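Example record

The entry below shows one chain as it appears in the dataset: sequence first, then structure tokens.
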Amino acid sequence: MGILRARIESRMKDGGSGDGNDLAKVLQLVKDAELLLKEMSGKAESARFLEDFVRIVGGTAESIGQVKDDVSELVPMAEAALDQMRDVVTSVSVVLSSPAMKDEIDPVILEQVSAATLPAAAPAPTPSPVGSNLKKVEENEERIEVPA
């Protein structure tokens, strides 16, 4: 369109053949057409940006759906794992609190285990010298089997 406008303008300057009024009208039509093309190309570019945005939002929604599905699968597995951990802690505390084990295990350790299995309102366990407890365990060399 720019080439056409340049030719018409040069003919108008040269006083080319034909009516100057007709050339002015044609020049105005060419300028209007250029303006329309410019606006349409801007709108087409905006439409492309909008399509890209819609595609990005759609992909994001799909990703969020996948994350939601993954989380909904993980929550029951985490609950099951926590239940198993609670059962193991309960089994260990039952075994450790049996009369046969009380004689073999340092009372401080029993207090710490009992305090750890009680709710948060229980007093904090008192620290004990780790080295002496390890020696007693090594001397006894008995292993406690906890039912699964």
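Notes for this example: The mean pLDDT is 77. The chain has one domain: 2-124.
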